[in-house]
Fold Phenylacetaldehyde dehydrogenase.
Amino acid sequence: MVQTLQNFINGEFVPATGTDSLDIVNPTNGDVVAKAPISSQADVDAAMSAAATAFKTWKHATPGQRQSVLLKLADAIEARSDEIVQAQHRNTGQVKAMIASEEVAAGADQLRFFAGAARLLEGRSAGEYMENFTSYVRREPVGVIAQVTPWNYPFLMMIWKIGPALAAGNTVVLKPSDTTPESTLVFADIAKDIVPAGVLNFVLGNGGTGAAMVDHKTPAMVSITGSVRAGIAVATGAAKGLKRAHLELGGKAPAVVFADADLGKTAQSIAEFSFFNAGQDCTAITRVLVEESAHEEFVAALSTATKGLETGHDDDSLNYFGPLNNINHFNAVSEVVANIPDYATVVTGGKRAGEKGFFFEATVVDGVKQSDDIVQQETFGPVITVQTFKTEEEAVEMANDVDFALASSVWTSNHGVAMRVSRDLDFGAVWINTHIMLTAEMPHGGFKQSGYGKDLSMYGVEDYTRIKHVMSNLDA
């Protein structure tokens, strides 16, 4: 029997009032595994009302009390890891071991960081900056936060949203992606016995539901991880109500490879970082810029490394990465590869993997030009391009010559080159001789069309706060 999913509002699972629904499809085989409601305006109203009411008390919870809640959540999700993994695998097809380590275990670790951060929020020290008047700064929660998470890392991106929001004393109404809601609902079931009613609310639906959340009068801030198109829509909607916006959007990450790098080791690493999670990662390497003198050797090594990354098997344990998320995305990635210019070459991959589901081979395309769509536009799949450069200056210019600016990396054995190029790359994150590594203590977020605001770190927590100046008359 196909389960009908429910919203989670004010500490309870409740059926949506809307009559329309969405099929939730397992991308490994195309089977419908659940039905999710398209929540109505009434559902959004109920969630916002619950969050607004809960904020009146949650904002006064002490940092220690908020920390305690987050620590209990971290322990609880670890205890129910298998259940979360199974639910998410039904919706994403991701490799189960990857979900367990990179989303559940990492999510628990990051919740513990946010739990600690709840007790470290600071403002400027009090002082008499005007004679006979003492001033101090309060760092306060913003209020109700409307949040939207993507389908590529449903569980982890939920943690990135709710962790800093709750740590700072806000309440949340969150809509998971319309294709991957189930792991979020397992978390809701975990949270119902730990988090006070109304502090966390989850509303299911489509883009229209998300728009209703953004347009609602209650939220003081909206936060989305998603496409540039979705980010622009959210920013536009937020601007109409003068709401704060927090946007983590697309990427087109370059890996700049110099001839003095260990080419074999670098090629293996780049292949693994590029095709992790089927390339459905805003920070994944999508463009390789290799020094011209090393091009032939590097491409041969990259081709060999790429061919060793398995996908499309019925046995999940045999796959390095899983399928693309849905049939529309599968068709879009297939079209990108089918439309590469005649002068470019598919070195390896380029077609469906396996006999069912939405699996696509790890694909390397060589000989592209800077102006090509496959270089400039986000593919968000297991497809990377290779270009050459002659000088350090040309490499930086090519790397920066896209509209996205989220992540990048430089590969070299020369310390000076690494320092200069990392300085000049116009991206929110730059890795040296590695890529995609994240830690809760360091900020993650981009520039340009990759959005604004930071996830993770104390910077991410501060994004969910507001600053108030309080001045007291000493003679009163």
About this structure: Residues 3-249+450-470 form a domain with the Aldehyde Dehydrogenase; Chain A, domain 1 fold (CATH 3.40.605.10). The longest strand covers residues 133-141.
